[in-house]
Specification:
With 283 residues, this protein is an alpha/beta fold. The protein contains 11 helices and 8 strands. It has 2 domains: 178 residues, NAD(P)-binding Rossmann-like Domain (Rossmann fold, 3-Layer(aba) Sandwich), CATH 3.40.50; 87 residues, N-(1-d-carboxylethyl)-l-norvaline Dehydrogenase, domain 2. It has an 8-stranded mixed sheet, with helices on both faces. Strand 1, helix 1 and strand 2 form a beta-alpha-beta unit. The longest helix has 20 residues. Bound molecules: nicotinamide-adenine-dinucleotide. The site of nicotinamide-adenine-dinucleotide (NAD) has 28 residues, from helix 1, helix 4 and strand 6. Nicotinamide-adenine-dinucleotide (NAD) binds next to helix 1, helix 4 and strand 6.
Length: 283
């Protein structure tokens, strides 16, 4: 595999994925539709490297090499698409947008390029079917924050080849991650279990049973997890949580996955959590 990776979407996940790939010696093009997100991504990644240098984790030579290996852009024509043979899509969790993007990736990238998606819940099989290379489309679901979290869920769709699966397993390992493989069903492993728990915590708040602080404190101390469910929802992004619940509800057809009305209302009010500086808590 060549060392050139295209990451599409420079939000919190895309920038973490780009940073991680670069630190492992890859060259990365990080593409977004919004210049403001590209600027924010650059600032965030560089400040992570500066903090690492201060702590003695990395050298300034490493940082300047890494900066050379990172191209941030909003234009497809600003880099050589022929040099890319692996892409990781990390745009907004919206099926229509992702299907459109997969068609664009299919048209623009070389025939042998693998097209992976960091989607939390959208069917890989459907993304694959929108391309002319369904054997080369696969889910590569990183956890947030990507440079810190060890896990990658790998999701072969119905049509993904075993060769594509093994390339992605090797890449995940090279990125210093531990992988697990999930079949392509709504929510895969982690979100199938995590999101209904977060949604239930929002119901507990919605029904006036407890305050956000007590819900989080209860779950942290009672189940020995580092973050409470509402704090974690704010960290993930409430829009992303809502999209995942909708996919679970629609895809599994069971009322136990209905998104809590309070979650919908927060998203309507643009209270999206940390990224909008207000969610269940203020930031
Ligand atoms: N937030 C999490 O904790 C988390 C964890 C694992 C996976 N994910 C998944 O990762 C993906 C991204 O999530 P995020 O939290 O980084 O979202 P985000 O809202 O922080 O970023 C999304 C980015 O996509 C960009 N974008 C939208 N349409 C685009 C297009 N057509 N082309 C290029 N860029 C486009 C937006 O400008 C934005 O910068 C989603 O599929 C989400 O489900 C999120």
């Amino acid at each position: 595999m060549s060392r050139n990776i295209l990451v599409v979407g420079a939000g919190q996940m895309g920038r973490g994925i780009a940073q991680t790939c670069i630190q492992q010696g890859f060259k990365v093009v990080l593409l977004d539709v919004a210049q403001s997100m590209v600027d924010l991504a650059k600032q965030t990644i560089v400040s992570q490297w500066e903090k690492g240098i201060e702590k003695g984790k990395w050298t300034s030579e490493q940082k300047s090499q890494w900066e050379k290996n990172l191209t941030l852009t909003t234009h497809w024509d600003s880099f050589d698409t022929h040099s890319i043979n692996f892409s990781i899509e990390a745009i907004k969790e919206d099926k229509k947008l992702k299907l459109e993007l997969f068609q664009t990736l299919d048209n623009k990238l070389p025939q042998n390029a693998i097209l992976s998606s960091n989607t939390s819940s959208i069917p890989i099989t459907e993304l694959a079917a929108s391309t002319k290379r369904p054997d080369k489309v696969i889910g590569m679901h990183f956890m947030n924050p990507v440079p810190v979290m060890k896990l990658v869920e790998i999701i072969p769709g119905l049509t993904t080849s075993s060769e594509t699966l093994s390339v992605v397993q090797s890449l995940a390992q090279e990125l210093g991650k531990t992988w697990v493989v999930s079949k392509d069903f709504p929510g895969f492993i982690v979100n199938r279990i995590l999101m209904p728990m977060i949604n239930e915590a929002i119901y507990v708040l919605h029904e006036g049973i407890a305050t956000p602080k007590d819900i989080d404190e209860g779950m942290k101390l009672g189940t020995n997890v580092p973050m409470g469910p509402l704090e974690l929802a704010d960290f993930i992004g409430l829009d992303t949580c809502l999209s995942i619940m909708e996919v679970l509800f629609e895809g599994l057809g069971d009322s136990k996955y209905r998104p809590c009305p309070l979650l919908r209302q927060y998203v309507m009010a643009n209270r999206l959590g940390r990224k909008s500086k207000r969610g269940f808590y203020d930031y």
